[in-house]
Records
---
Amino acid sequence: MALDELRALLARHARPDTTTAIDSVLISKVEQSAPPSPSMTGTVLALIAQGAKRIALGDRVYEYRAGQYLIASVDLPITGHFTEASPERPALGFGLTLHPATVAELLLQAPPGDLPPAGGGAPSGLAVSDASGQLIDAVIRLLRLLDQPRDLAVLAPLIKREILWRIITGEQGAVVRQLGLADSSLTHIARAVRWIRDHYTRSFRVEDVAQMSGMSVSAFYRNFQAVTAMSPIQFQKQIRLQEARLLLATHPNDVTGVGMRVGYDSPSQFSREYRRQFGAPPSQDAARLRGSTLGTASTLA
């Protein structure tokens, strides 16, 4: 079966850091279920060949398992973990980073009328679907190139474009197509998300970010909530708390200083919101984090 070959390829080529010799291609191998942890999704196609994963975005929960894929069309703060993974049967996944410029180029090459319109409103930033046989076949052919270095430089870009075409024309195609449209609602919200991430320590007015995004306040708020499952202020809070947790892993004795560095003026408010998010006050969580490593890079969602 196709999934059997896909599992074998992923298991053989998995590395601790998820990277591969093919640009923008990631491989995940996880041998045990761990407690949910925070991370950023990146913009990615994530296909599971073995195991299952659960992701929380705001008040939404997404689950996907072998033979299913997840699309993350915006870099979002999530909490997630593999729910089925063991040394005997590790969770195995394939990831492909989605670049808006590549999506736009492919859309321009598609014959007129071959693609339905992307739609007016912004879709959710995450979506899950069953993988078609054509998509799985293309992923297998791409991973086979890891055993054929001579062919990699020429054939890998072609197969990556095929994979992108399969998802553009698949069930979640509207989400991916909006990623490549310069004036789509998703693109406007993605611009706001980047601004908030880059300036998460600063207070802001929603009206100002909406204006910067080229949308009315009501349309901005509605579309931001649709994409991220959060309000802009809640989104900023998620970023602040995730950054604080990463800082506490290396500065466990400076809880007040970490809170101020991520934008909190009140230590009590920082402690209260941190505990609500992670289930323990900052000092206690910092002690638990000591000796462990939390990653900040965009990884296989």
Note: The first helix runs from residue 2 to 13.
---
Amino acid sequence: METAFEPVKRGKWKKRVLRLLALGAAALLLWCLTIYVIVVRFDGIPGEGKPTPSDVGIVLGARLWNDEASPGLKERLDLALELYEEGAFARIIVTGGLDAGGATITEAEGMRNYLTAKGVPESAVLMDTLSRSTYENLLFAKDIMESNGWNSAIVITHSYHGSRAADIARKVGISPLQVSVTDSEVLNVPYHQAREVLAYTKWLGTKLFL
């Protein structure tokens, strides 16, 4: 038989649970806003002016369309071309393995094809054709750097992706490090910024175990 105190107890527990849920939701919202600000405020390393000359440029991969660089990937490659022509580096590492969407060449091969069609000598383009994530992009690029005796690098990507890329590059040991970023005129930037909050959170968790 239910006593008079049991409804009171249930009411107290319900309030506690609701309070904890509200605190959890507030903490999650604060976390997401903090990461979002980090993502959208990143404007490169260094943040102002042109990067200083480095041993190599590293272009982070993205999807191909029909075995050719997608419009978003072309934006990264065009920034790499601009820096290459300005003398920021004499060699370019392009990164990315085979897409799951039916591509017959790797992202790196598609990126190399785009650069060489723009006049970059094939001998100046080195490829990582195995990586499947930003972490692997930079880890495998670091391996290529070490095998060639290179130390410094300029990492090239989009603005929304730059902060996480910089943190990963530091983790894999690229130093001195510079990051050059480009804004996008072809991508759905708000979508990618929101997605980056989740990707950055996942990376911070993964980093704890590396």
Note: The longest strand covers residues 153-158.
---
Amino acid sequence: MNYKRLDEDDLTIIRSIIKEEERILYAEEINEEYSHDELSDTVSYPDVVVKVISTDEVSEIMKYAYENNIPVTPRGSGTGLVGASVSIEHGIMLDTSLMNRFLELDENNLTITVEPGVLLMELSAYVQDRDLFYPPDPGEKSATIGGNISTNAGGMRAVKYGVTRDYVRGLEVVLPDGKVVEFGGKVVKNSTGYAMKDLMVGSEGTLGIITKATLKLLPLPKKAISLLIPFPTLEKAIRTVPFIIKSKSIPTAIEFMQREVILDAEKYLGKKFPDNSADAYLLLKFDGNSTEEIEKDYANVAQICLEQGAIDILISDTNEREESIWKARGAFLEAIKGSTTYMDEVDVVVPRGSVNEMVEYIHGLYKEVDIRIKSFGHAGDGNLHAYILKDDLNQEEWEEKMKAAMDKIYGKARELSGQVSGEHGIGYAKKSYLMESMDPATVEIMRGIKRAFDPKNILNPHKVCQI
């Protein structure tokens, strides 16, 4: 596309739509944070940042952009890890973080309707105060719900409860030409035509801009207990996971972690972890409506772990212990980032039966490519996070070794019938690996869907499957 670069005439039109001048950032007013996301080294500034507060504003901006071939990039909190919210072609960045209202809590239908800028932690607290439960639990609690939906975020509770897509009932969406449409609704079942709502979930802002979301809720579990289980080696820990999965006592979460990452988290938080003496750990969580119900489940799983070589079973049955363990787990990403000069991430997912092979492969890879790699992940659903660390490497060495490590990890995932991303998406940074892993016919179908929604390719160009 021959995109139009923003000029003073365009800015005048934008100011006529957005009445408050402070919600428009132009030229040197644009903060450096708007040029990148949380991790990716993809850097590009938008020409203007518009902080929208309503569906009407989003619609009017998109109508004008569509008519004038101006690229538009939607953005929430900017916590993404693959460059999906970076303005590659400059143009307009639509910041939806001020669209943060709770619109309706429908306890009869167990749904809540929110704007996209509501933060995950705000939503979780809001419904929990009303004895309700929003199960998706991505690690970054300051992410917006719009961003979670756009990447189909997963999180630690996916092994029992599923991912974001499983809790999206309905969406209000502004299309690239400014039209406002609704996909889905409050109904539990829907076989009415194509699954347009599900197509929007995980589309990373390339097909439309989410302005409202109706989400499914559950009754709040009354009790939760976690088990921190030390193992003498990573291999013993990870090889226990398939036995847990095959049992009839499925935990809410099954996380794996290594001692070196726990030490990073202790340093980052300035607090001791309940135990850091073992080489590797499984962290399991069980929830339910009574202690007796949970104890029956975790006793079975604890026995399995001991039979597979666990050193001990540490039970976290108080709020203080729970908070200590899970706060440390939630800090892993920032802790690893703070332990090196720069890092890049692999977010692969493999079938659950292959998770032990994938973890062991990643663990041994650093010797082969001569670069530090730290990993942790959601062992219960096969989604693994491997962080490749730059440390003191010069730029040439870093790019060479980082690419070698990524090529091998993604190659191993393909060998195990895995996928490029389990929850962080493709964005701009991981496109080449998507192309390698996916049938060209499937890629062309995806590009056809993009053309159907956005024939002028103005919405978040160069992302996911676009060259």
Note: The radius of gyration is 23 Å.
---
Amino acid sequence: MTGVPAGWTAWREDLARRIDGITPESLLADEELRRKAALVLMDDLAAMVVGATHAEVIALAQSFASPIAPGESLTALGTRGPRDKVAAVNAAAAGWDELDEGYRPATCHGGLYTVPAVIAEADATGRTVEEVLTAIVLGYEVVTAFARAFPAPRPLVLHPHATLSPIGAAAAVTWLRTGSAEQVMAAVDVAVTLSMSGPFSHAVSGALVRNAWAGAGAVLGFLASDLAAAGLGGEPTGALDVFAAGYGHATDEAELTGSTGRWAILDGYHKIYAACQYTHSALEAALELTEGPLRGRSIDEIAEVVVATHPLAYSLDNRSPSTTLAGKFSLPHVVAAVLVTGRTDPRTFGEELLHDPAVASLRERVRLVPFEPLPAAPHDRPARLTVRLTDEPGTVLEADCMSAIGGPDRPLEEDQVLDKIAGLTPATPNLAALARRVVTTRELDGEPWSALVTEAWQR
């Protein structure tokens, strides 16, 4: 056991108190919180539908489908399987295109680590929509608390999809099963020991196993819940041993001793760009240039593009991405794709432009430098693009983006997220209508989740 910092025991007790005695009725009486939980849920369902179109996700779902038994839960592809494997498929699909919800106060995707496990458990056990929403809020609260308590060093060495996802899944599933804060914390103490050391560099190089880490975390979350219930428990200091002693993450003393604010899910953000969020400010600056001083110019007139960026993006420097994942985590590719096309729709960051000659050529002319001095949050993920042209004076064009849309100071409005869902899911036309009903009304709260998700994903 590593040394126990002052405040650790009190921090755990406070986290348990926050979720103790919570019921759907008491939690969801807060209309703002209920609508936000519904928005996170439906946004991630839409991301699953988009991700489920990829050949690798289809193959994964087929490998888990049983030719004998119909299975407990439904995947976004319409196949059925064991609940933990279904959660793995849906989590891989949700994160595949970088369109899932995220959390800015720490490097954590609270929805991705809770929603797939919750909906698979709810589908298998006949839980209601309001129970699903409550489990998501509580699982989100727990996993983001650990993310804040053990902030990852910059630049990132390990990927949060690997290190944190078992915690969110275990907390959410265990609450759905027991409603007990004590049991949730016991499952979390097991889940932290199942944390995976997935290298962040795999995202940059494009190793597609990265897209499976949140799914693996969902499976491990189910396992942690089962193990804790069977008496195979962990230690209350397990997170210190794993994150501080093992991974070398410093504990945040302010988090351990500070007062608790509002529910963490209210600080979640929604994305419209199908690329790593760390690239978003740069791609918005690139779009500004294409719509302004670069309009009508050929990219052959560009001699160099200098991207001043923030520490989380320093490693995103792959100029030869070989997979769409690598492209989404490549600042040279994302910036070049926007400068060449003047677009920022999901196709811009997909397979279509990965090997485009013009984009590939421009990628080689993109150079990353630190953005200095780095501003404080919410402007802690800024970008400045400086484009130098090939003309005789060497004309220099510049655009800044201090905070991309979706950030705390530029949040997507509810209707914008609902429009995003509709735009992403024409193949499942029921989903957009259901999303609006679930978010804006309570008329489906008491309905079985299994009926709703079957209708939502019907093609």
Note: Residues 149 and 252 are 5 Å apart (CA to CA).
